[in-house]
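This protein record is not my work; I was only asked to verify it. The record follows directly below this note.
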Amino acid sequence: MFLKSSLFNSVFLCGALFAASLTASAQNTTNRDYIVAIVDAAPITNHDVNARIPALRDQLKQQGRPIPQGAALLQTVLERLILEKALLQHAKEAGVSVDDEALDQAEQRMAAQNQLSMAAFHKKLASEGVSVERFRQNLRDQLVLQRLTDRNVPSRIKISDAEIDQVIHQRQTATEDNNPTIELGHVFISVPEKASESSVATLEAKAQTVLASLKRGEDLSRLAKEYSDGPEREKGGLMGLKQANRYPTLFTAATKNLSVGDAVLVKSGAGFHVLKLVSKRASGVVTITQTHARHILLRPGGQVSQTAARAQLADYKRQIEAGKADFAKLAREHSQDGSAAEGGDLGWVSPGMFVPEFEEIMNKLQTGQIGDPMISRFGVHLIQVLERREAPISERELREVARNSLREKKFEETYQLWAQEIRGHAYIEYRELPQ
C-alpha cells in the first residue's frame, strides 16, 4: 500500500515552498498593477510576477543555483508564469482536473505539515492577506500541473540497455574502490562518563601504549585480551570481515588510507579506540542498504482529523518510550492497514519500495528509534526502524535500480522539452515590462 509510485514525482512548487509563494503574494511590492502578458485568454499581471519572486529565490537558493537580479529576475519569473499558464490551458483541453476531495486532502496535508488544524491554518492565511478561495485555487492549479506532468513525461523517457550496462559498470567499479571488504582489529579503552581530566589523560596514555605496541608488530590478540574493554576482546580484537560501510563511520574514516598492518588511535564519546587494518580486498559484490521497519497507520476521516490522528500517535510514542505500551500490540489494535496483523511489521525493504515522503523519514531514523508522527498520502504514520543490513542485489534488481536512476536523471530534461513544446502551441502576447 505504501509502494512508491512514479506518478508522485513533480517539478512544481509544493509544501513549504508553495506556501511561501502564497505568503509572498500578500506583500504587494508595487502600488501599480497592470497586465504584463497574456497567454491564450489568461492575463498575467505585474502583481503576479512580484508575488512569485520570493518563492523563486528560495527555490534557486535550495538548489544552489545563482539568483538573477533586477530585470533579469523579473523576466525569469514572467517566463515561468507564462509556461504555467500554457500548461494549465493544455490540461483543461486534455480534461485533466482535480476533484474537491483530492483538493481537500492536499489542503489537510499542508495544514498538518505546518502542525496546524484546518481552522488555525485558514486563520494564518487570513492574517497574511491570502483568502482561502485564492489559496485553494492556487493549490488546485499545482495539483493539476502535477497530474498533467505525470501523465505525459514518464512515457517520453527512453532508456537503452547500453545506458543501463554503463551505470551498472560504474556502480560496480565505485563499490570496489570505495567500499572494500575489510577486517579491523579493535582495542577499546573505555572512559567513564564523569572521569576527571587526570583519569582521561591516564587512559589516553594506556591507549597510546597499545598503539605503539601494534606499530612494533606485537600480537593484537594478546593486547586485546590485556587491555580492551570491548566485546571483541574474546575474539582477539577482531571485528570480522565485512564491507567497509558496515563498520562505524568513525572507524572507516580513520582507517580509509591505512595500509594493511597499520594502526591508528581515534577518540569517541565512549573512549579511545586503537584500530588496526588486518585485511583489505576489493569487493565485487554490489549491495544495497535494506531496512526492517514497522509502523502504525491512522487514516483521517469522519470524526478523526489529521491533527487528532497526529496527537493520538504522539501519545502512543510517549507510552512506548516510557515502557507503558508495546508497539506491536498498539499496531495490532489500532493500525489501519494490512500490516496490523503482524504488529505493524513491514519486513525487509529495499530503497524505492515506499512512497518518498515515508521513505525520507524512515531513512533518517536510527536503529530502534521511533519517529514523530508523519503525514503521507495514505494517512498519518508512526514509524520505528528495527534493523538495517547490507544485502547483495540480484542482476534483475541491479538493472531496475540503474533504470530508476537514469529515469530520475532524465526527468527534468524530458519535462523541459515537453513543456516547451506545449508553450510553442500557445498564443502569447507580451505587454508592458514587469517592475
Observations:
- The radius of gyration is 28 Å.
